Every structure is written in C-alpha cells, then in structure tokens.
C-alpha cells in the first residue's frame, strides 16, 4: 500500500431553517494519514481526541471494515494517524467527517469502486441525515432531501459571508437533543418553516444579506432545544444588534454559529453572552469552504484521481 492522506472538512448542519436538509462545509479539518503496517492501527495525535477508540470500535475503522466486508475482502494492514481541529460532540460534524474520511479511504484502497453518488448514499446511511456528510464530502453548501430510501441533492457554492462560532465547553449528544423534539408541528408552523427554508436557499445562492437574516430563523428545532444550550435564546435574539446578520444552532448543538457583518463585534457579543449565563465557550471566526474531502498520495504532489470524483457536479 502506498502512503496517502485524506483531508475532510467539518460542517454545520440544520443550517438556519434548513432542519435535516441544509448544511455547509467549514474550515475545520479532519486529517487521516495512512501508511503500511501489520494490521489496522489507529494513532490519535491530538490531545482532545484521546477519548476516541483506537480499536474496532473506532468509527473510521468501522466504516472502512463495512466497505471491505461488502466486497468480501479483509481489511488490509495499515496505520492511520488521526488529527483534527473539529471539536467532538459540539455540532460541527466530527462524526460526519469521520464517516466520510473512512469511506474515501476505503474507496481509494478498493480502487475507486464507488462513484461520488454511491459514496454519498453510503455516508447518509451511516449518518442518517444528508446535511452533515454532504458538505464534508462535496464542500460548499448541501441542500438535500432523504426519506430513508430516496436521496436527492444539490450542491451550491460556499457563501462569502464571514462566520463566527461559539463552542460551549460542554458536550451535547445528538440523541439527547433529538429526544426534546415534538412529533408533530401545527400547519402554521410547518408553512412558516418551509417558507423560511425556501428563502434561506435563495439567500445562500444570491448572497442577499437581508433575505439571509429571515431565512436563518428556525421553528423546527431551535425553540425546543433552547433549554439545552444556555445562552442560545439570547444569542438568537440579540446578535443582529451586535454586528451579526443572524445566528443559529449548529447541528444539534451546543455550538452557536452566526453570519457576521462585523466578526470582531460578534465574537465579543457571543463571548459575553455565554459568560453571562456561566458557560465557558471558545469563540472564534470561521469561513465556509468550497473544498470537500480530498485525498493525496503523500509521496508525490498530485492528488489521487478520486478528488475529481468527489467534487462532482450538482444534482
């Protein structure tokens, strides 16, 4: 096996009013460096990743093993070094990046058995939703519909609006965040949520600031999760008065993301907002990225031809 490297961006899902359907790639990265070894070995490089399993329970290895099992081949020997600046369990797509990284690596080792569409479908089956894994695979913005069987999607360019993320230093498991959601919404709520999601898509495609602010307003999940994230309600209500266009809960939380006119002011505001409720949070500027998962042979400059497959056309 020739050494290679896989690099996968993090993501923000449930973007604004696009619950379970709109996501965006961000400039936080998972890097997997593969080299020949007697057996599958995982080496965690970064300190904050020490809780990750380094055996068969590791998500990356599970995804890869599943790919090889499907084609009735044993998982080959390799050593993979895992490094990442995507916070774990914070709503920034750490699990989605691991799934995509495992799929891309396995596909490379299997001679590019699956095309981009098949990789995406496998990723959605693992994750359960398209709006995290889609951006990590393709980059930019992912707009998708998945009913458990049929998957339709369109990719769009990364918007140029600056972003700010506030990452509370407390994990929030997606399972817990899902449990607080209602089984049904009223007809009025459904219509309002749908109209705002439509507006959000238009805003992302045209980069109209005033339309984006309305499209970010959610009624599908944020009202029900406010009590799980102290400071969220205040951030959503006040960010527009402190240099922001609008804020939203990233994924299932607890990270709060904001599009910003003035990133420095928004950083200060979010820092103060979480401090006021006694929550320590890491606040920093971010950017959306156009690049999805890429693979590079580490002994030469040229990337694998898989890169072209991954970045494919809109569908």
TrEMBL record:
InterPro entries: GHMP_kinase_C_dom, GHMP_kinase_C_sf, GHMP_kinase_N_dom, GHMP_knse_ATP-bd_CS, Homoserine_kinase, Ribosomal_Su5_D2-typ_SF, Ribsml_uS5_D2-typ_fold_subgr. It is an enzyme of class 2 (transferase). One of its GO terms (molecular function) is homoserine kinase activity. It comes from the Bacteria. Its EC number is 2.7.1.39. It catalyses: L-homoserine + ATP = O-phospho-L-homoserine + ADP + H(+). Residues 58-140 form the GHMP kinase N-terminal domain. Pathway: Amino-acid biosynthesis; L-threonine biosynthesis; L-threonine from L-aspartate: step 4/5. It is found in: Cytoplasm. Pfam families: GHMP_kinases_C, GHMP_kinases_N. Keywords: Amino-acid biosynthesis, ATP-binding, Cytoplasm, Kinase, Nucleotide-binding, Threonine biosynthesis, Transferase. PROSITE patterns: GHMP_KINASES_ATP. Catalyzes the ATP-dependent phosphorylation of L-homoserine to L-homoserine phosphate. Belongs to the GHMP kinase family. Homoserine kinase subfamily. NCBIfam families: thrB (TIGR00191). This is Homoserine kinase. It comes from Desmospora activa DSM 45169.
